[in-house]
Design goal:
GNAT superfamily N-acetyltransferase; 187 residues; 4 helices; Acyl_CoA_acyltransferase; Aminopeptidase
Length: 187
């Protein structure tokens, strides 16, 4: 298997169709694709015959917190083909995403939310939980927070700055104004 990367707008038709099918099976009724303002990139894990085994999207935006502006990335729509689950495909792809973000000088941190039961999966890939942190998504006029009633979310992050301990402390226990818009309300 191999990992391939595309700007979402440049994703070839065959893999794009497979990603849409995987996402529709995982999240019925959700609209495919991401807000172009978030510069979405698709990461795919392909089998030898070109089948999409797993996919995810990387989304990007600046976040202002604690008097600083951070260049943030988030993982979104992480999904593995149901017939290949339990074989490490998702773990391999998430680890590749972390490595790609860590090597990108335009990214200060990776920050996203996940369902609480998935936290150990993301922690194993190098995204520790930020205790007490809440992401506030949506828009300032229509916010959607990870601590909203009915959500059981945690926030995970990896810091790639010169002072990761300082920056982790700034984000720990904070309400982070993510505001990615109405398409990707929480990434």
């Amino acid at each position: 298997m191999r990992v391939v990367r595309y700007a979402e707008a440049d994703l070839p038709a065959g893999p794009a169709r497979q990603v849409a099918e995987l996402e529709a099976a995982a999240w019925p009724g959700a609209e495919p694709g991401h807000d172009p303002a978030l510069a979405p990139r698709a990461l795919l894990l392909l089998t030898a015959d070109g089948t999409v085994a797993a996919s995810l999207a990387l989304l990007f935006k600046e976040i202002r917190l604690a008097g600083r502006t951070y260049r943030a990335a988030g993982l979104s729509a992480v999904v593995t083909r149901s017939t290949l689950r339990g074989r490490g495909c998702g773990a391999r792809l998430v680890a590749a995403a972390r490595a790609e973000l860590a090597a990108d000088p335009a990214v200060d941190l990776a920050l996203f939310s996940c369902d609480r039961p998935l936290a150990p999966f993301y922690e194993a890939a190098g995204f520790p939980v930020l205790p007490g942190t809440v992401l506030v998504g949506g828009t300032p006029g229509q916010p959607l927070a990870t601590d909203a009633p009915g959500f059981d979310k945690v926030v995970v992050a990896a810091f790639f700055t010169d002072e990761p301990a300082r920056d982790r402390a700034a984000f720990t226990g904070a309400r982070v104004p993510l505001y990615p818009g109405n398409t990707d309300r929480l990434w």
